[in-house]
Amino acid sequence: MAIDLAPKVSRRPVLDRLRRDRRAHIAVPLLFLLLVAAAAAPFMSDSVSATDTGRLLTGPSSRHLLGTDEIGRDVLARIVAGAVVTVGVATITVGAALIAGTVLGLIAGYRGGWVDTLVMRVSDGLLAFPLLVLALTVVAALGPGLRNALIAIAVVTTPRFARVVRGEVLSLRTRDWVSAARIVGVTRTTIMRRHLLPHLAGTLLVFAALQVSTAIMAEAALSFLGLSVQPPQPSWGAIVASGTDHLSASWSLSVFPGLAILLTVAAFNLLADALRDALDAHRPDLAPAR
Protein backbone atom coordinates (compact mmCIF):
# COMPACT_ATOMS: atom_id res chain seq x y z
CA MET A 1 0.00 0.00 0.00
CA ALA A 2 1.57 3.24 -1.15
CA ILE A 3 1.71 6.12 1.28
CA ASP A 4 1.40 9.61 -0.11
CA LEU A 5 4.03 11.71 1.63
CA ALA A 6 3.53 14.77 -0.54
CA PRO A 7 2.51 17.84 1.45
CA LYS A 8 -1.07 18.90 1.07
CA VAL A 9 -1.49 22.22 -0.67
CA SER A 10 -4.50 24.27 0.32
CA ARG A 11 -6.81 25.30 -2.49
CA ARG A 12 -7.72 28.44 -0.55
CA PRO A 13 -4.42 29.77 0.79
CA VAL A 14 -5.65 33.36 1.24
CA LEU A 15 -8.65 32.33 3.33
CA ASP A 16 -6.51 29.92 5.36
CA ARG A 17 -4.04 32.68 6.13
CA LEU A 18 -6.85 35.06 7.10
CA ARG A 19 -8.22 32.48 9.53
CA ARG A 20 -4.87 32.50 11.32
CA ASP A 21 -4.51 36.29 11.36
CA ARG A 22 -5.39 37.91 14.68
CA ARG A 23 -6.31 41.16 12.96
CA ALA A 24 -9.00 39.36 10.99
CA HIS A 25 -10.24 37.77 14.23
CA ILE A 26 -10.88 41.28 15.56
CA ALA A 27 -12.14 42.90 12.36
CA VAL A 28 -14.60 40.27 11.14
CA PRO A 29 -16.74 40.10 14.32
CA LEU A 30 -16.91 43.90 14.49
CA LEU A 31 -18.01 44.16 10.87
CA PHE A 32 -20.49 41.34 11.40
CA LEU A 33 -22.03 43.34 14.26
CA LEU A 34 -22.24 46.35 11.93
CA LEU A 35 -24.15 44.33 9.34
CA VAL A 36 -26.45 42.86 12.00
CA ALA A 37 -27.20 46.36 13.30
CA ALA A 38 -27.95 47.64 9.79
CA ALA A 39 -30.24 44.66 9.14
CA ALA A 40 -32.05 45.14 12.47
CA ALA A 41 -32.52 48.90 12.06
CA PRO A 42 -35.76 48.73 9.99
CA PHE A 43 -37.41 46.72 12.76
CA MET A 44 -36.51 49.34 15.40
CA SER A 45 -38.15 52.38 13.82
CA ASP A 46 -40.55 52.79 16.75
CA SER A 47 -37.73 52.65 19.30
CA VAL A 48 -35.69 55.20 17.37
CA SER A 49 -38.41 57.86 17.42
CA ALA A 50 -39.91 57.02 20.84
CA THR A 51 -39.24 59.58 23.59
CA ASP A 52 -39.04 59.06 27.33
CA THR A 53 -39.78 62.55 28.62
CA GLY A 54 -39.12 61.50 32.18
CA ARG A 55 -35.51 60.58 31.35
CA LEU A 56 -33.67 63.32 29.48
CA LEU A 57 -29.90 63.13 29.02
CA THR A 58 -29.56 60.16 31.35
CA GLY A 59 -26.57 57.86 31.39
CA PRO A 60 -26.56 54.09 30.82
CA SER A 61 -29.24 52.26 32.78
CA SER A 62 -31.21 49.02 32.70
CA ARG A 63 -34.01 50.77 30.81
CA HIS A 64 -31.73 52.57 28.33
CA LEU A 65 -28.48 50.65 28.00
CA LEU A 66 -26.54 53.57 26.50
CA GLY A 67 -28.61 56.40 27.94
CA THR A 68 -30.93 58.92 26.32
CA ASP A 69 -30.51 62.13 24.33
CA GLU A 70 -31.82 65.64 24.98
CA ILE A 71 -35.44 64.73 24.16
CA GLY A 72 -35.44 61.27 25.74
CA ARG A 73 -34.69 59.08 22.72
CA ASP A 74 -32.75 55.87 23.28
CA VAL A 75 -29.11 56.30 22.23
CA LEU A 76 -28.57 52.60 21.51
CA ALA A 77 -31.54 52.48 19.14
CA ARG A 78 -30.28 55.56 17.31
CA ILE A 79 -26.77 54.13 17.00
CA VAL A 80 -28.20 50.91 15.56
CA ALA A 81 -30.30 52.95 13.11
CA GLY A 82 -27.23 55.00 12.18
CA ALA A 83 -25.48 51.80 11.07
CA VAL A 84 -27.64 51.89 7.94
CA VAL A 85 -25.96 55.14 6.88
CA THR A 86 -22.52 53.70 7.58
CA VAL A 87 -23.18 50.58 5.50
CA GLY A 88 -24.59 52.76 2.72
CA VAL A 89 -21.46 54.90 2.71
CA ALA A 90 -19.25 51.79 2.65
CA THR A 91 -21.07 50.21 -0.29
CA ILE A 92 -22.38 53.06 -2.43
CA THR A 93 -19.57 55.60 -2.31
CA VAL A 94 -16.63 53.18 -2.39
CA GLY A 95 -18.39 50.93 -4.90
CA ALA A 96 -19.05 53.82 -7.29
CA ALA A 97 -15.51 55.16 -6.85
CA LEU A 98 -14.08 51.67 -7.38
CA ILE A 99 -15.89 51.20 -10.69
CA ALA A 100 -15.25 54.69 -12.04
CA GLY A 101 -11.65 54.84 -10.85
CA THR A 102 -10.83 51.38 -12.23
CA VAL A 103 -12.21 52.25 -15.67
CA LEU A 104 -10.37 55.58 -15.78
CA GLY A 105 -7.13 54.05 -14.49
CA LEU A 106 -7.25 51.18 -16.97
CA ILE A 107 -7.82 53.49 -19.92
CA ALA A 108 -5.23 56.02 -18.83
CA GLY A 109 -2.57 53.44 -18.00
CA TYR A 110 -2.99 51.30 -21.10
CA ARG A 111 -3.64 53.91 -23.77
CA GLY A 112 -1.19 56.53 -22.49
CA GLY A 113 -0.72 59.70 -24.50
CA TRP A 114 -3.14 62.59 -24.15
CA VAL A 115 -5.76 60.38 -22.50
CA ASP A 116 -3.35 59.51 -19.69
CA THR A 117 -2.28 63.12 -19.35
CA LEU A 118 -5.85 64.39 -19.16
CA VAL A 119 -7.05 61.82 -16.63
CA MET A 120 -4.02 62.19 -14.40
CA ARG A 121 -3.99 66.00 -14.44
CA VAL A 122 -7.64 66.10 -13.42
CA SER A 123 -6.93 63.50 -10.73
CA ASP A 124 -3.92 65.45 -9.48
CA GLY A 125 -6.02 68.59 -9.30
CA LEU A 126 -8.63 66.83 -7.15
CA LEU A 127 -6.03 65.12 -4.98
CA ALA A 128 -4.32 68.45 -4.31
CA PHE A 129 -7.14 69.31 -1.90
CA PRO A 130 -7.76 67.47 1.39
CA LEU A 131 -10.60 65.00 1.01
CA LEU A 132 -12.88 66.67 3.55
CA VAL A 133 -12.33 70.15 2.11
CA LEU A 134 -13.18 68.95 -1.39
CA ALA A 135 -16.21 67.04 -0.10
CA LEU A 136 -17.40 70.19 1.69
CA THR A 137 -17.06 72.11 -1.56
CA VAL A 138 -19.11 69.59 -3.51
CA VAL A 139 -21.82 69.42 -0.83
CA ALA A 140 -21.93 73.22 -0.67
CA ALA A 141 -22.53 73.30 -4.42
CA LEU A 142 -25.18 70.54 -4.41
CA GLY A 143 -26.82 71.32 -1.07
CA PRO A 144 -26.96 69.41 2.23
CA GLY A 145 -28.40 65.91 2.35
CA LEU A 146 -27.30 62.29 2.47
CA ARG A 147 -27.57 61.75 -1.29
CA ASN A 148 -25.38 64.77 -2.06
CA ALA A 149 -22.91 63.72 0.63
CA LEU A 150 -22.61 60.28 -0.97
CA ILE A 151 -22.04 61.88 -4.37
CA ALA A 152 -19.38 64.18 -2.92
CA ILE A 153 -17.49 61.36 -1.21
CA ALA A 154 -17.64 59.18 -4.34
CA VAL A 155 -16.35 62.03 -6.51
CA VAL A 156 -13.38 62.81 -4.27
CA THR A 157 -12.52 59.11 -3.81
CA THR A 158 -12.52 58.20 -7.52
CA PRO A 159 -9.13 59.82 -8.33
CA ARG A 160 -7.48 57.72 -5.63
CA PHE A 161 -8.59 54.50 -7.31
CA ALA A 162 -7.70 55.86 -10.76
CA ARG A 163 -4.12 56.63 -9.71
CA VAL A 164 -3.59 53.24 -8.05
CA VAL A 165 -4.98 51.34 -11.04
CA ARG A 166 -3.02 53.42 -13.52
CA GLY A 167 0.24 52.69 -11.68
CA GLU A 168 -0.43 48.95 -11.71
CA VAL A 169 -1.36 48.96 -15.40
CA LEU A 170 1.83 50.80 -16.35
CA SER A 171 3.85 47.91 -14.90
CA LEU A 172 1.64 45.22 -16.46
CA ARG A 173 1.27 46.51 -20.01
CA THR A 174 4.93 45.81 -20.79
CA ARG A 175 4.64 42.10 -19.97
CA ASP A 176 5.32 39.62 -22.74
CA TRP A 177 1.83 38.12 -22.57
CA VAL A 178 0.27 41.53 -23.10
CA SER A 179 2.50 42.13 -26.12
CA ALA A 180 1.66 38.69 -27.47
CA ALA A 181 -2.06 39.35 -27.13
CA ARG A 182 -1.66 42.65 -28.95
CA ILE A 183 0.29 41.01 -31.78
CA VAL A 184 -2.32 38.34 -32.43
CA GLY A 185 -4.99 41.01 -32.78
CA VAL A 186 -6.73 41.02 -29.41
CA THR A 187 -8.59 44.29 -28.98
CA ARG A 188 -7.62 46.85 -26.36
CA THR A 189 -10.88 46.39 -24.50
CA THR A 190 -10.39 42.63 -24.29
CA ILE A 191 -6.79 43.00 -23.12
CA MET A 192 -7.84 45.39 -20.35
CA ARG A 193 -10.82 43.28 -19.31
CA ARG A 194 -9.42 39.74 -19.56
CA HIS A 195 -5.67 40.16 -19.11
CA LEU A 196 -5.08 43.24 -16.96
CA LEU A 197 -8.13 43.55 -14.72
CA PRO A 198 -7.80 40.10 -13.04
CA HIS A 199 -4.31 41.02 -11.82
CA LEU A 200 -5.68 44.16 -10.16
CA ALA A 201 -8.27 42.36 -8.03
CA GLY A 202 -6.07 41.89 -4.95
CA THR A 203 -4.76 45.44 -4.96
CA LEU A 204 -8.24 46.88 -5.45
CA LEU A 205 -9.69 44.75 -2.64
CA VAL A 206 -7.13 45.98 -0.12
CA PHE A 207 -7.33 49.59 -1.28
CA ALA A 208 -11.15 49.53 -1.19
CA ALA A 209 -11.09 48.35 2.42
CA LEU A 210 -8.83 51.27 3.31
CA GLN A 211 -11.01 53.76 1.44
CA VAL A 212 -14.13 52.55 3.24
CA SER A 213 -12.72 53.77 6.54
CA THR A 214 -11.84 57.12 4.96
CA ALA A 215 -15.33 57.45 3.49
CA ILE A 216 -16.98 56.64 6.83
CA MET A 217 -14.90 59.32 8.55
CA ALA A 218 -15.78 61.83 5.82
CA GLU A 219 -19.52 61.15 6.11
CA ALA A 220 -19.34 61.37 9.90
CA ALA A 221 -17.62 64.75 9.60
CA LEU A 222 -20.23 66.01 7.14
CA SER A 223 -23.02 64.79 9.43
CA PHE A 224 -21.32 66.48 12.37
CA LEU A 225 -21.45 69.75 10.43
CA GLY A 226 -25.09 69.18 9.46
CA LEU A 227 -24.35 68.70 5.75
CA SER A 228 -25.19 65.02 5.36
CA VAL A 229 -28.02 63.19 7.10
CA GLN A 230 -30.81 65.56 8.11
CA PRO A 231 -33.03 65.16 11.21
CA PRO A 232 -34.86 63.12 12.27
CA GLN A 233 -32.84 60.38 10.50
CA PRO A 234 -30.02 59.33 12.84
CA SER A 235 -26.36 59.27 11.88
CA TRP A 236 -23.35 58.64 14.08
CA GLY A 237 -21.75 61.97 13.24
CA ALA A 238 -24.99 63.85 13.90
CA ILE A 239 -25.46 62.11 17.26
CA VAL A 240 -21.93 63.10 18.27
CA ALA A 241 -22.67 66.68 17.24
CA SER A 242 -25.86 66.82 19.33
CA GLY A 243 -23.96 65.46 22.32
CA THR A 244 -21.33 68.19 22.24
CA ASP A 245 -23.94 70.69 23.45
CA HIS A 246 -24.68 68.56 26.50
CA LEU A 247 -21.30 67.18 27.55
CA SER A 248 -21.62 68.48 31.09
CA ALA A 249 -25.03 66.83 31.51
CA SER A 250 -24.45 63.53 29.68
CA TRP A 251 -21.09 62.22 28.51
CA SER A 252 -22.59 59.08 26.94
CA LEU A 253 -24.43 60.90 24.17
CA SER A 254 -21.18 61.69 22.32
CA VAL A 255 -18.91 58.92 23.59
CA PHE A 256 -20.87 55.88 22.39
CA PRO A 257 -21.51 56.96 18.77
CA GLY A 258 -17.92 58.18 18.62
CA LEU A 259 -16.80 54.76 19.82
CA ALA A 260 -18.93 53.14 17.10
CA ILE A 261 -17.14 55.24 14.46
CA LEU A 262 -13.74 54.39 15.97
CA LEU A 263 -14.36 50.64 16.09
CA THR A 264 -15.78 50.52 12.56
CA VAL A 265 -12.87 52.45 11.06
CA ALA A 266 -10.37 50.35 13.01
CA ALA A 267 -12.07 47.14 11.83
CA PHE A 268 -11.78 48.09 8.16
CA ASN A 269 -8.14 49.12 8.60
CA LEU A 270 -7.30 45.86 10.35
CA LEU A 271 -9.10 43.88 7.65
CA ALA A 272 -7.19 45.74 4.93
CA ASP A 273 -3.85 44.96 6.62
CA ALA A 274 -4.77 41.30 7.01
CA LEU A 275 -5.90 41.06 3.38
CA ARG A 276 -2.72 42.70 2.15
CA ASP A 277 -0.46 40.28 4.02
CA ALA A 278 -2.55 37.26 3.00
CA LEU A 279 -2.54 38.24 -0.68
CA ASP A 280 1.16 39.17 -0.75
CA ALA A 281 2.19 35.89 0.87
CA HIS A 282 0.42 33.85 -1.81
CA ARG A 283 0.71 36.15 -4.79
CA PRO A 284 1.72 34.07 -7.82
CA ASP A 285 4.12 35.25 -10.45
CA LEU A 286 2.41 37.45 -12.95
CA ALA A 287 1.11 35.34 -15.81
CA PRO A 288 -1.58 35.78 -18.42
CA ALA A 289 -5.05 35.42 -16.95
CA ARG A 290 -7.03 32.51 -18.30
What series of H and E elements makes up the topology? HHHHHHHHHHH
The helix tally amounts to 11
- State Rg: 23 Å
Considering the protein shown, what is the CATH homologous superfamily?
A: MetI-like
The share of residues in helices is over 70%
**Mean pLDDT, as a whole number?**
85
**How many angstroms does the end-to-end distance come to?**
38 Å
The quaternary organization reads as single chain
Give the overall form.
elongated
Q: Into how many domains do the coordinates divide?
A: 1
Strand segment tally:
0
In the CATH hierarchy, what is the architecture at level 2?
Orthogonal Bundle
Structural class: mainly alpha
CATH class: Mainly Alpha
As residue ranges, the low-confidence spans are: 284-290
CATH topology: MetI-like fold
Largest sheet: none
Tell me what portion of residues adopts beta-strand conformation: under 5%
Describe, in plain words, how this protein is organized in 3D.
Belongs to the binding-protein-dependent transport system permease family. It is a multi-pass membrane protein. InterPro entries: BP-dependent_transpt_permease (IPR050366), MetI-like (IPR000515), MetI-like_sf (IPR035906). Residues 83-272 form the ABC transmembrane type-1 domain. The chain is an all-alpha fold and 290 residues long. It has one domain (38-50, 62-281): MetI-like (MetI-like fold, Orthogonal Bundle). It is built from 11 helices and no strands. It has helices at 13-19, 22-40, 45-49, 75-111, 113-127, 131-142, 146-172, 176-183, 188-224, 236-244, 252-281. Helix 4 packs parallel to helix 7, helix 5 (113-127) packs across helix 7 (146-172) and helix 7 runs antiparallel to helix 9. The protein is elongated and about 80 Å long. The model is unreliable at 284-290 (pLDDT under 50).
